[in-house]
Fold this sequence. Notes:
Layout: E1 6-9, E2 15-19, E3 22-23, H1 30-39, E4 47-52, H2 60-66, E5 72-77, H3 80-89, H4 92-95, E6 100-104, H5 108-117, E7 125-128, H6 139-178, E8 185-186, E9 196-199, H7 205-214, E10 220-224, H8 228-232, E11 240-243, E12 264-267, H9 274-277, E13 282-287, H10 293-301, E14 307-308, H11 314-325, E15 330-333, H12 350-358, E16 376-380, E17 386-390
Parallel strand pairs: 4-5, 4-7, 5-6, 8-13, 9-10, 9-15, 10-11, 11-12, 12-13, 13-14
Antiparallel strand pairs: 1-2, 2-3, 16-17
Helix pairs in contact: 5-6
Amino acid sequence: MTPDPELFTATSGLMSVRYCGKELYSPGDPLRGILKKIRTLSIPEQTLLFIPSPLLFYGFDTLLQIVPESSHILCVEYDEKLMALSLSRAPEAYIHSTRITYIRTDAINGVIHTVRASGIWRYRRSCLVTLSNGYSLYPSFYRDCERGVQAAINRYWQNKRTLMEMGPGWIRNIFRNLSFCTESYSAADLTFEKPVVVTGAGESLEHSLPLLKRLREKICIVAADTSFPVLTQHDIQPDYIIAVESQVSNMKDFIGNVYSTIPVIFDLTCFPAIHRVFTGRKYFMLSDFTRCRLIGKLKEYLPSLLLIPPLGSVGVIALYLSSLFSKGPVFFKGLDFSYILGKPHARGTPSHVLTLSQSIRTLPLGYYDRMFSRPLIRCRDKNGNPVYSDLIL
């Protein structure tokens, strides 16, 4: 059993802490080194200052003087015993300060949830500052927390930029697609009786085509729109198609379509021409992409409207809907997290066909150079073979 933290008087007369065989502050002068570190800090506006294991809050009076009003201090404690000690000895002014949030958690998601709940839009960046040696007890947890917080902040602003860029088009498409709702059905009415196979457009889909043909009568195939031409080129007719792309480029997936009566599950934000391409049953839904009065009104006037989380990728949305409506197991293929350089999608998808059509002697793979336009991550697949991924995947 782990012993309780031990308080003792340092040489300078201040209290210090000993725990798990470690001195959590300097046994000579706990405050001196902390103040020296704080004075070297340069904290920009709108920064979330991430402080692991604040313990006795030494140096916080000086820290608050240099932290901008637009910034905030997040203190996280992993250890329950250290948290109890901190709450019993730390100044009340810091524990209950509006400029400081103090939580105890052993889950990274708990930290991220706290940041989101406090208003993640207030921050542009996070900064890790250690003011006690409590950090050294659980360094990997605290590092992962800070990385998770920074990733959450980055994701928020990336989504914000996407919303500013794509939002007007989504709104236009919603109004255009509303006219088709009277002749369509709510996606909430769907039920998949057979085992479901969700198909994405990744290269691994190619290897599963023989199996899909062999099991065709026993399964329900839910195809992400970009995987549709791959299936049709092998005489596999999916049971449903998921369409969510808001731009006209999505229509390339349906060139030469010979299965126009396939039911389509479409997002109200998707490109409206989908209704001209397919004549079969259509089921509408809506990605809840932002907080706005329009979505609230749509839900009010269309009580059957299915709102889904803003999942971003059509393949992930297909998987989400299948797990929601299937009475049996759900399998997926082609939702890849890596690719062969120059071949981001399966053979037969519009991007792969375009790559082949643009190939020339000096540029044999049209997309190869584009693969290096963003940082590549070298990793290994499930069989241990080297593959490439990127920050998007």
